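Checklist before submission:
- one chain only
- standard amino acids only
- sequence pasted in full

Submission:
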Amino acid sequence: MTKFNSAPVAVSFEFFPPKTAEMEQKLWQVVERLAPLSPRFVSVTYGAGGSTRERTHSTVRRIRHETALEPAAHLTCVGASRAEIDAIVSDYWASGIRHLVALRGDPPGDAAGYAVHPDGYDFAADLVAGIRRIADFEISVAAYPETHPDAPSAEADLDNLKRKIDAGATRAITQSFFEADTYLRFVDRARRAGITVPIVPGILPVTNFAQVAKFCKGCGTSVPDWMAHTFDGLDNDPETRRLVAATVAVDLVHKLQAAGVEEFHFYTLNRAELTLAICHMLGVRAPQAATPAPALAV
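Returned file contents:
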């Protein structure tokens, strides 16, 4: 059994904006189940090419005004001019949003690759600087322990992360990974490069191995052979698959916790069960209601 650090742990959660009324209802059920864990913040993603922009805005504002959670809105460079993005940033500030996740963004699914908008922010570092000029947001950015697929080298990718931090980002959140050493080696490299902000590990519980493997292939995350073996034969056995997924994720976070990691960001995929289970094992739990004292006999 992995020996782990008992220091207090902070968590944050990522959601994606719902596409339908039914999906919105399910998302809010997830929000209500995870809110008692008192996450540091909850983020809401954009779709490729900014395709879910308005739904992201709506979801973030609802979290801000209907819950006690601290929302963080994803914002990308794709498909919008600087003036349009600046207006969105200003509107977020006016709406009480104080945390943005600044990303280059993925191109639309039918695009050959990333293309800079002629009047837009070129890359995430430029977006961070633009946000910082408008208001004093907390700004998170992405980090890639195994190198961004578009980066010419691991060194160039790390230089890009440093540019984002130097432009004003206050936190980096990593792409998902499945080996603790992958994250720990990356953090060591980042610290040697002069990056001092928190680098929070992004944890993706595996609910569907085939889908995760496909996703990881597109974002440069390696899937260890042992994972394929672990999930083999469970495609039609969702109950066992969930138990295995929880075991795999808990083993990863306990190894990180044993190495001194005290903050985790969970990619929830708008599901609560696995994230709740992992947080429970980390010691992150909803406060228990006090049990009334028994009445005295008279």
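Reviewer check: The first strand starts at residue 10 and ends at 15.
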